[in-house]
């Protein structure tokens, strides 16, 4: 599903250079890539999740 899903393509293509805010500086950035996308509608662009418990 991860490799073949068209809908998940934008997440698969994400790199650390696409991250910003809390996620850009996070220790887990390379692994997580701003994992949860729930904050995207609130912030207007992907790559930052200030609600992650690692951002505190």
Features:
mainly alpha, 56 residues, globular
Protein described:
The chain starts with 8 loop residues before the first helix and ends in a 13-residue tail after the last helix. The protein has one domain (9-55). The chain is mainly alpha-helical and 56 residues long. The radius of gyration is 11 Å and the shape is globular. The chain is built from 4 helices and no strands.
Topology:
Blueprint lengths: L8 H4 L8 H5 L3 H4 L7 H4 L13
Q: Helix and strand string, N-terminal first?
A: HHHH
Q: Would you tell me the structural class of the helices and strands?
A: mainly alpha
N-end to C-end Cα span: 32 Å
Q: What overall form do the CA principal axes indicate?
A: globular
Largest sheet: none
- How many individual β-strands? 0
Rounded to an integer, what's the Rg over CA atoms? 11 Å
Instruction: Round the mean pLDDT to the nearest integer and report it.
Output: 79
Q: Regions with pLDDT < 50 over 5+ consecutive residues?
A: none
Helix content: 25-40%
């Amino acid at each position: 599903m991860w490799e073949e899903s068209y809908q998940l393509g934008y997440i698969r293509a994400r790199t650390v250079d696409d991250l910003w805010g809390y996620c850009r500086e996070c220790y887990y950035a390379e692994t997580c890539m701003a994992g949860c996308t729930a904050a995207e509608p609130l912030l207007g662009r992907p790559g930052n999740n200030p609600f992650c418990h690692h951002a505190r």
